[in-house]
Structure formats: structure tokens, C-alpha cells
Amino acid sequence: MNPVKKFLLPALCIGLFGSGCTKEPVYPIEPLITYVSFTKVQNNSGKDEKGVLKINFTDGDGDIGLNDYDIDPPYDTASMYYYNFFITYFEKQHGEYVAVDLPLSNNSRIPLVPPATEGLPLTGDIDVELYINNPFSTFDTIRFDVFIVDRALHHSNSISTPDILINK
């Protein structure tokens, strides 16, 4: 037998046997999110205009995301579940955080994770771009509260960003 084949065959068998024994991670079926980072983006005038929020998620059954054509109940436009990434904008006003309704919602739809992963534990990062400089306000410190919802309508925990100081 060729010396390379003599070594490769047992190594391949051990590799296949060993990989079959690795366990999938176990996560709860409700999504769990953690804050990763927030990066401000300035406009041409040097003012903070947008930001990129990054969170990490885990989901035990991998049913994260919606397709563009997911518009039938409960994902229809009349339902809160049209969105699956929920963001509340807060301004620090006189030392206290106050939720502010902006003209446009920051809520969004996480795209569907490939169906081959549905039913399997899933982890990953989500980046979302947000407008952060409220032109109707003079307050310069904000934060966001965030949660996500999976296709089975399980709500994740809610997280808050640290204070974000805006260059107005």
C-alpha cells in the first residue's frame, strides 16, 4: 500500500468519527441578544448623522428572519410583527431618559436566515444603520433599547446601548 494512503485512510476515519461526536450548542428557543458595539458616522459637515448598532444573537431553533413576501398575518403591515427588530430611541433630557417618537421608525426586518439552518441552533451578529441626530431636539445624549422576535413570535431579552454623545 502507498505510504501516503496508509497514513491518510486511518487519519480520515478518525477525523470523520471525531467530527460526528461534536455536539451542537444548546440555546433556548427564545432569541437571546447581547450588545456588541455602536459606531457613529459623520456627515460632510462633521456632525454625527448615523450610527451602526451591532448586536449578537443566539436562537435554539434557528427561526430568525423574514422574507420580503412574508406579509400575511401575523407578519402583515397592520401587525407589530411586520417588524422583527424593534428599536426605541431615547434622549437624555435633564438627566432622565425619555422615549422619543421620531418621524420615521427605526424598527426593521431581519432578513430570513437560510432555511437549511431552520431548526438548528443559530448564532450570529446583526448590524443595523440608524439615524441618530434628531433635528427637532437640542439634547445631545441618546441611547437605544432593542429586542428581536423570531418567526414563532418568541421575544428576545431587551438590551440598552450605553450613552451615545451626539455631535450636533
Which descriptors would you attach to this protein?
mainly beta; Immunoglobulin-like; five-stranded antiparallel beta sheet; three-stranded antiparallel beta sheet; 8 strands; globular; disordered N terminus
Can you describe this structure?
The structure is a single chain. By secondary structure, this protein is mainly beta. It has a single domain (25-165), classed as Immunoglobulin-like (Sandwich), CATH 2.60.40. It is 11% helix and 35% strand. It is built from one helix and eight strands, in the order αββββββββ. The longest helix is centred in the N-terminal third of the chain and has 18 residues, at 3-20. The protein is globular.
CATH architecture label: Sandwich
Number of domains: 1
Radius of gyration: 22 Å
Distance between the termini: 75 Å
**Sheet with most strands:** 5 strands, antiparallel
Q: Helices and strands: which structural class?
A: mainly beta
- Average pLDDT rating: 87
Total of helices: 1
Fraction of helical residues: 10-25%
Per DSSP E runs of 2 or more residues, the count of β-strands stands at: 8
Indicate the proportion of strand residues.
Answer: 25-35%
Q: At the third CATH level, what is the topology name?
A: Immunoglobulin-like
Shape: globular
Oligomeric status: single chain
Helix/strand order, N-terminal first: HEEEEEEEE
Provide the CATH top-level class. Answer: Mainly Beta
Name the poorly predicted regions: 1-19
